[in-house]
Amino acid sequence: MTKPILIWGAGAIGGTLGASFIRAGHEVIFVDSAADHVAAINAKGLQIDGPIYQDTVKAKAYLPEELEGTFDRIFLCVKAHHTAAAATALKPHIAADGYVVSAQNGLNENVIADIIGKEHVIGCFVNFGADYLEPGVVHYSGYGAVVVGELDGKRTPRIETIHALMLQFEPKAVLTDNIWGYLWGKLIYGALLFGTALTNDSIADVLANPAYRPVLTQLAHEIGKVAEAQNIVTEAFNGFDPAAFAPSAPAAETARSFDEMVVHNRKSAKSHSGIWRDLAVRKRKTEVDAQVLPVVEIGRSLGVPTPLAAKVVTMIHEIEDGKRPLDLANLDDLARAAA
User: Where is the signal peptide (predicted)?
Assistant: First the structure.
């Protein structure tokens, strides 16, 4: 096995993981498409700020076109809508028996597998809080679930190796035989985050607001029904219990999960989602077409309607295009669509 770990995408997730691996004694190489970020890492190192730890780690960083060689362990950490392009670019750099760990949001494992081959892909679910602040600086803001698993659920030497590596980042990291259950669970939770990102309120404040819990619950029901139609058993994490958002779940159970998510998010220094940050701070496209839209399309193919998820996609596009402001009233619009 070659020694360096290749981190493709040195932003919030990739920067945080890579810095922690370096602190644990591993050699890490970063690849990122932002020239100013690459230049800053090479000049001064990658600075990690936030309440978990503060440090500056040294590592080589490259633009994709500058990278040479092949690697056994690659973490793909780009935004979901950049997955296909990144997987295509990194394909020549995968060793014959190498693999790519998809540390992203969404169902990117399928996209990556179509490009590099399913045998080279390892599933990964992350829910820790982090933000890219500026070139060379990432904010690691809160602990969260970390889960890895083979796509077919098998226990293999390589997944045990990756799990051991992840334990050096997050001592509670989980090795699962049901990675798709976690990824679909995160899609349900992610839909709730897209709902919170329609406003300027914090994640915790929106989830705590009793006025909007009914519409967010209906939104979660839609995603859960699409997962259920594929016989996927969704998994719980960080206060989010997908069983509490099943259509047959007692209202008290749903309220309990909302309350636990509020507690988890109030502990994090990351008050708003990365989706909100894309819309309000970085003024760029979100991952909605790579996270929520595929659920709408899968639901349509299975005969499972998802009108609220489709409405969220439309509303996020309107905000991206400057045609709709971030406002709590957007959730009122979504609630009217649910009526």
Answer: none
